[in-house]
Design goal:
Number of strands: 6
CATH class: Alpha Beta
CATH superfamily: Mannitol-specific EII, Chain A
Strand content: 15-25%
Number of helices: 6
Order of helices and strands: HEHHEEEEEHHH
CATH topology: Mannitol-specific EII, Chain A
Helix content: 40-55%
Shape: globular
Low-confidence stretches: 153-158
Number of domains: 1
CATH architecture: 3-Layer(aba) Sandwich
Largest sheet: 6 strands, mixed
C-alpha cells in the first residue's frame, strides 16, 4: 500500500489551528468533506461523527506526537487519507500522554476490511520513523509535507 494511493496534495494541511482534540477532528472532518473526491458525497458531520465514535472506543493518539484517527463510511469507494501538521501540539489523550502535532486521518469504505488494516499499518509504520517525523515537523508548507510523506514510500514499502 502506497501512501500516494491514500493521500492527495489537497489532503495535506500545514499549520492547522486547533486547541482541542475535538476541534482538530472537526476541522479535519470539514477539510475532508471539501476534498474534490468527497465533496457533495459525504458530509462533514458524518465524517466527524465516525472519527469521534472511534475515539470513544480508545484514543488514536499512538504516541510520539502522532495520532491516526480513522473510521469507515458508507458511500466511499476507496480509502482516503488526510494529513495535518498542527500549529501547536494539543492534548489528544495519547497512550504516552504526550501532546500530538501530526495527525493522519484515514477514511475507509464500510467493506474495506483487510485493506483498512493494511493502510493503518502502512501509515503507522511510516510515522514511526523518527527521521520522517523530524522532516514533517520541520516543514511549513503543504507541498513540502506531501513530498516528505510520499517520497519515502519507496524505502518503506509495505
Amino acid at each position: 500500500m502506497d501512501i500516494g494511493e491514500l493521500l492527495r496534495p489537497e489532503g495535506v494541511v500545514a499549520n492547522l489551528r486547533a486547541a482541542t482534540k475535538k476541534q482538530a477532528l472537526q476541522e479535519l472532518a470539514k477539510r475532508a468533506a471539501e476534498m474534490p473526491e468527497l465533496k457533495g458525497r459525504i458530509g462533514e458531520r458524518d465524517i466527524f461523527e465516525v472519527l469521534l465514535e472511534r475515539e470513544r472506543l480508545g484514543t488514536t493518539g499512538v504516541g510520539a506526537g502522532i495520532a491516526i484517527p480513522h473510521g469507515k463510511l458508507p458511500r466511499l469507494e476507496r480509502l482516503h487519507g488526510l494529513f495535518a501538521k498542527l500549529d501547536r501540539p494539543i492534548d489528544f489523550e495519547a497512550i504516552d500522554e504526550q501532546p500530538v502535532d501530526l495527525i493522519f486521518v484515514l477514511l475507509a469504505p464500510e467493506a474495506a476490511g483487510a485493506d483498512h488494516l493494511k493502510a493503518l499499518a502502512r501509515v503507522s509504520r511510516l510515522l514511526r520513523d523518527r527521521s520522517i517525523c523530524e522532516k514533517l515537523r520541520g516543514s511549513d508548507s503543504a507541498d513540502a509535507l506531501y513530498a516528505v510523506l510520499t517520497e519515502t514510500t519507496a524505502s518503506h514499502a509495505a
